């Protein structure tokens, strides 16, 4: 049997061919999706990130070639589509979460610790250990625009820690060796203007409160934290929680705690005590200590659930196999969990019904229901560390 | 495994004897090297946990680089002492809770030679 094809003119043939091509293209394009439930999980030893979604709790893609991610941080474009991944080796990689691939990548320093994005989403700023300072990039193209070397005395450059975006295209950060807080105004991104404030001995990390008003640097070299009111920077830095160790010998610190705006729950900030098995609670209205909660070991991340009703805590080596949950009303530990070996990080889903926890030495991410504290899912991941959801895009200080 | 020169072997054996009483559960075998299983643990400890401050690749972080070029110029005893007792006034804690002095010395020698990757150990 033979099939008879209709006779077509050349223009008709072209039209048929074009229609066929378009149909084929359409069928291979996935349906459009939003970015609100997406995130990245760092797989630190293999220099790759997993693109994940928190609705079905699955991995959508794996993006490779991001360099040394032994310490990595992610900040998000305002539309949540791009994650800017700052690697230890100075790599700055713009990852497209929707397409599951690298959009752009530059190596911008020798040793980097993280970065942040401006209020208007146009500038990405990296904070570096070597050469110490911050560098400013166009968020679209990653074109370098300017830098502020952390040269605190002639010939001396400091490592930069605790970079936070502030309202008004400003960024605050702390200088480990210099013991200072710097605030840089990038209203003109090619002409940074910087103010310096003495802060205290060896600031190791910092946070800005969710309203962008108070910048707080944790101090390794002394008992206490440095607070700068950014509405009144002319008043300078004030010490809070001074002498929280009350002269006791601090324990050896095998891992530095991390500070971010997640510390704030309602009117209180929940802060890791360095060298102590305690979480410190401070009233953000007058910055006085109101309580200290004894915990399993030295806290690393002390994170409030988005509604502020719970605070979740993980711990430094060698006690990093446990997680504890503090009830913020009774200010006591209500749950101790053992998600796996070497719990490095956790991240709440945008409204906090679940928390994702990375267990590095068990090569998995465990998802818990925060209300029942039962595991909901486990995702295999290669030496996972940081977990970063796109809900950070809308938060000051992330 | 590289063969140690006789003098180094002698010193290593002496060190072992010296520390045997202090570290009853010492996992360092007679040849002055930790057992293979323990070597793997030490490699993981250095890469992952020392790596929190010194970097997974040991190229430095809040703590200084521990690459061969950086450590080779320093006396071995100083480096062993730093691992065991920490460096007061800095962020470096002592690790004597987790490693014995001969193990610390093994770590230092590996750092000088170029540190093994995690998951290897041999």
TrEMBL record, chain A:
Residues annotated as signal peptide: 1-24
Which InterPro entries does the record associate with it? Cyt_cd1_C_sf, Haem_d1_sf, Host-pathogen_enzymatic-act
| Alphabetical keyword list | Signal
Q: Which PROSITE patterns match?
A: PROKAR_LIPOPROTEIN
Q: Name one Pfam family in it.
A: Cytochrom_D1
Q: Which domain of life is it from?
A: Bacteria
Could you tell me which Gene3D superfamilies the record lists for this protein? C-terminal (heme d1) domain of cytochrome cd1-nitrite reductase (2.140.10.20)
Name recorded for this polypeptide: Protein NirF
Entry annotated with the keyword Cytoplasm: no
From TrEMBL, chain B:
Which protein, by its recorded name, is this? Answer: Cytochrome c55X
Instruction: Specify the Cytochrome c domain's residue ranges.
Output: 27-115
One annotated GO molecular function is: metal ion binding
Cite the entry's keywords alphabetically.
Answer: Heme, Iron, Metal-binding, Signal
InterPro entries assigned to the protein according to its UniProt record, in alphabetical order:
Cyt_c-like_dom, Cyt_c-like_dom_sf
The stretch of residues making up the signal peptide is 1-26
Q: In this entry, which stretches build a coiled coil?
A: none
What species is this protein from?
Azoarcus indigens
The family database entries (Pfam families) matched by this protein are listed as: Cytochrome_CBB3
Taxonomically, which superkingdom?
Bacteria
Instruction: List the PROSITE patterns.
Output: CYTC
Cross-referenced SUPFAM superfamilies? Cytochrome c
């Amino acid at each position: 049997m033979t099939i008879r094809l209709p006779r077509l003119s050349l223009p008709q043939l072209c039209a048929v061919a074009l229609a066929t091509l378009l149909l084929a293209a359409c069928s291979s394009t996935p349906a459009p999706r939003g970015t609100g439930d997406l995130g990245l999980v760092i797989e630190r030893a293999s220099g790759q990130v997993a693109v994940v979604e928190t609705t079905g709790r699955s991995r959508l893609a794996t993006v490779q070639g991001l360099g040394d991610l032994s310490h990595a941080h992610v900040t998000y474009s305002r539309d949540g589509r791009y994650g800017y991944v700052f690697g230890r080796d100075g790599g700055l990689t713009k990852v497209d979460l929707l397409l599951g691939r690298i959009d752009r990548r530059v190596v911008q320093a020798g040793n980097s610790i993280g970065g942040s994005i401006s209020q208007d989403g146009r500038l990405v700023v990296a904070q570096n250990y070597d050469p110490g300072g911050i560098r400013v990039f166009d968020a679209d193209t990653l074109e370098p625009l300017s830098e502020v070397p952390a040269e605190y005395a002639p010939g001396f450059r400091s490592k930069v820690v605790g970079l936070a975006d502030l309202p008004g295209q400003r960024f605050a950060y702390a200088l480990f060796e210099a013991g200072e807080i710097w605030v840089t105004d990038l209203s003109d991104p090619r002409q940074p203007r910087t103010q310096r404030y003495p802060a205290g001995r060896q600031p190791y990390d910092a946070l800005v409160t969710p309203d962008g008003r108070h910048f707080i640097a944790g101090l390794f070299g002394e008992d206490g934290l440095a607070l700068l009111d950014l509405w009144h920077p002319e008043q300078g830095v004030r010490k809070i929680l001074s002498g929280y160790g009350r002269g006791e010998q601090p324990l050896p610190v095998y891992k530095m705690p991390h500070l971010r705006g997640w510390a704030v729950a309602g009117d209180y900030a929940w802060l890791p005590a360095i060298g102590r098995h305690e979480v410190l609670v401070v009233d953000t209205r007058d910055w006085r200590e109101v309580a200290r909660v004894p915990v399993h070991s030295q806290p690393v991340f002390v994170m409030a659930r988005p509604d502020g009703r719970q605070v979740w805590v993980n711990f430094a080596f060698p006690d990093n196999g446990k997680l504890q949950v503090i009830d913020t009303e009774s200010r006591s530990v209500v749950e101790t969990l053992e998600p796996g070996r070497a719990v490095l990080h956790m991240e709440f889903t945008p409204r906090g019904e679940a928390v994702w926890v990375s267990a590095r030495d068990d090569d998995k991410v465990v998802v818990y229901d925060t209300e029942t504290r039962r595991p909901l899912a486990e995702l295999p991941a290669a030496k996972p560390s940081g977990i970063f959801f796109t809900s950070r895009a809308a938060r000051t200080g992330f | 495994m590289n063969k140690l020169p006789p003098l180094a072997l002698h010193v290593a054996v002496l060190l072992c004897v010296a520390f045997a009483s202090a570290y009853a559960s010492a996992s360092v075998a007679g040849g002055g090297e930790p057992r293979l299983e323990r070597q793997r643990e030490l490699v993981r400890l250095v890469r992952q946990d020392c790596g929190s401050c010194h970097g997974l690749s040991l190229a430095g972080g809040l703590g200084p680089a521990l690459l061969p070029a950086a450590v080779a110029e320093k006396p071995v005893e100083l480096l062993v002492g730093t691992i065991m007792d920490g460096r007061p006034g800095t962020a470096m804690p002592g690790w004597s809770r987790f490693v014995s002095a001969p193990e610390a010395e093994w770590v230092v020698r590996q750092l000088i030679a170029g540190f093994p990757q995690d998951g290897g150990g041999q």
